[in-house]
Amino acid sequence: MLTCEICGEELVLDKDMKTHLLLRHMENDMGCPLCSWSGVAYNELRFHINTTHKEKQDHDGAEGRGGHSLVRPSSSPTPSTTIVDSHCKQAIGLSRSEGSEKGVANGNRFDTIGGGVSLRTSNSTLESKERMTVSPQAFSRGESGGGRAVAIVEPTSSVSTGFLRSAQDSSRPTSRHCNAEDSVGVGSAEHTTVKQKRFSSPLKEKRFSCPMCALVCTDAFILQEHVELHLLEESPAEEAVLGATSSTEAASSSNSSGGKSYECPLCSVVCGDCYSLQEHVELHLDYGTVTNAVSPGSDLRLARRLQEEEKQRRKEQEAKREAEEFKKLQRQFGVDGRGGYRKQMERTMEKAVSRGVMVPADFHNKRAEMMEALASGVDDGRTRTQGVLGALYVYYQREVRDCVHVWLSADTDHFCSSEGDKGWGCGYRNFQMLLSSLQRMEPYTTCLSEGSVPSIPRVQVLIEGAWREGLDPQGATHFNQRLQGTRAWIGATEIYALCTSLRVSARVLDFHQPTGPGDTHPRLFDWVKQYFSQTGASGARLPPRVVQTTQPPLYLQHQGHSRSIVGVEQKKNGSLCLLLLDPGCTPGDVRKLLSQDGSTVSTAVRRMRKFSGNLKHRQYQVVVVDGVLSPEEKQTRVLNSRTLQAERIP
């Protein structure tokens, strides 16, 4: 427990003692006896009286009724000094018997504020007394009249239990005045023992800046009242809280020696003193945790408000994230408005010119050729490789020894991606491979133009035409009825709609889940083997080891890419291996199949082989072509495609 050496108040914590000293004992108790000017040092007060009230002193001295004198304390060290301004009807040097029992024994306190005299009785018991020494010069003229006298009070003890502020001005200490009729007086050579109410400390020239505005105060109490005005103006709830804390502080001042505890009116925290409680309540105000100080459900409302704000913030973040992901998907699937085949081709050639790879003359020549091909709607054939299946048939007849059976599709040309569709044109290129095979088969020549493979922009036009006929309305809505001028990816359903529009019978098979260990699809491999082997030599006892069937290739779609199945191998151990043509392969790699070098062909074939462990996507879709549609069958499939469903296996 800490005890204030000035007023005797007991505090618990060191920071509370610092706050007490700052707020209670920072300013001086010395004041002018002729006006309300106070709170200054001794030298300043003396200069003020000698200059401001010089005429008043001369007038009083001439009349002989009394005088104003300011007597400096004796050379003996004193902890503090109190100036007492007394309006006396008789000199203060009266006999002790007249007033000692009246004033000192009763512990009465006399405060004079603004010229009026008021009597106040201290509520606290003084633990020490002070002895007042009065200089004779101070009352050389005051014994004979009712003049003023200024005396120096020299305390002999520095311990006091506390002090009370004036009822009219609780924020600042005022000058103390004694009524001659009720106060206790002594002779000029004697001392009187009185109860100590308050000590003052020497003034320190300090300035206090308001933390909420630019105002600078010279007094700590003025600063405190100024800051409280800021808090009162913020909300009525804060005013109520400040009222509660001020009443608590008043109660604690009157009972400073009782050891009470104070409970916060806004929460269940209990403080050891009023100053800690005031700081705690101000924390509520600073952090905005008070919405209605008088409502018991303020904490619940605050929690609900914070919860609503958190939900709103999460919704905004979720919406922002979804918008960003949607933009990424648009960019990934080529529907972000960055242009289609022609713009990408031109941009690629411009970059080649800027790097010095292509001269401007070649740029203009290639651009003119591209524009001519786009106008005709026929692929220019620069990415086309013919004779691939014939080369594979010769290779398996001559080189391969570890295969029991090999089934190949009908003759198919390979189409690879170009600068205009790199990264998004695999679906269109696989359709070109399928179409190149169908154009060589007799049943399909009636509905397909022989020898001409449409370009990618032309394929986009054909798919949009299929949508206008009523095929796959859900897919049309997905692409907003538009493919031209975009880099949109297409899949198995778009290939089905395009084939149906061309009167080619097609089916979509959906291998929607793995059917083997390690996320493999053995059912897919078995189905492909059955598809190619069903047209083999059924009458022969032993089918040939290598068979080139009349079956068109299969369109194989999985997440992010598509390829064409042009054959299947069956090894001696019974395992199956698919032969795939990938649009991502360059023309140079595919043309290695046409080489006469066996090792070069073996390297190219090795890239085409895909075993069961190489196909581990969760879902695969296969488009199968199995004939030509009549006009009536086509119309039926158009109507059925409104709810397009694939054949699920298994």
Automatic annotation (TrEMBL):
Gene designation: MIGA1
Protein's name in the database: Zinc finger-containing ubiquitin peptidase 1
The enzyme's E.C. designation: 3.4.19.12
Polar residues compositional bias, start-end: 166-177
PROSITE patterns to which the protein is assigned, alphabetical: ZINC_FINGER_C2H2_1
SUPFAM superfamilies assigned to the protein according to its UniProt record, in alphabetical order: beta-beta-alpha zinc fingers
Location in the cell: Cytoplasm; Nucleus
GO CC, any one term: nucleus
Keywords on record: Acetylation, Coiled coil, Cytoplasm, Hydrolase, Metal-binding, Nucleus, Repeat, Zinc, Zinc-finger
Stored InterPro entries: UFSP1/2_DUB_cat (IPR012462), Znf_C2H2_sf (IPR036236), Znf_C2H2_type (IPR013087)
Family the UniProt entry places it in: Belongs to the peptidase C78 family. ZUFSP subfamily.
Main location: cytoplasm
Residues in coiled coil: 300-332
Location of the C2H2-type domain: 4-25, 210-230, 264-284
Subunit (UniProt): Interacts with RPA1 and RPA2.
Signal peptide: none
Record bears the keyword Transmembrane helix: no
The keyword Mitochondrion belongs to this UniProt entry's keyword annotation: no
Pfam family membership, one: Peptidase_C78
Compositionally biased tracts (Basic and acidic residues): 53-66
GO MF annotation terms: cysteine-type deubiquitinase activity; deUFMylase activity; zinc ion binding
UniProt source species: Oncorhynchus tshawytscha
Stretches the record annotates as Disordered: 53-84, 124-147, 166-192, 240-261
Catalytic activity annotation: Thiol-dependent hydrolysis of ester, thioester, amide, peptide and isopeptide bonds formed by the C-terminal Gly of ubiquitin (a 76-residue protein attached to proteins as an intracellular targeting signal)
Domain of life of the source: Eukaryota
Biological function: Deubiquitinase with endodeubiquitinase activity that specifically interacts with and cleaves 'Lys-63'-linked long polyubiquitin chains. Shows only weak activity against 'Lys-11' and 'Lys-48'-linked chains. Plays an important role in genome stability pathways, functioning to prevent spontaneous DNA damage and also promote cellular survival in response to exogenous DNA damage. Modulates the ubiquitination status of replication protein A (RPA) complex proteins in response to replication stress.
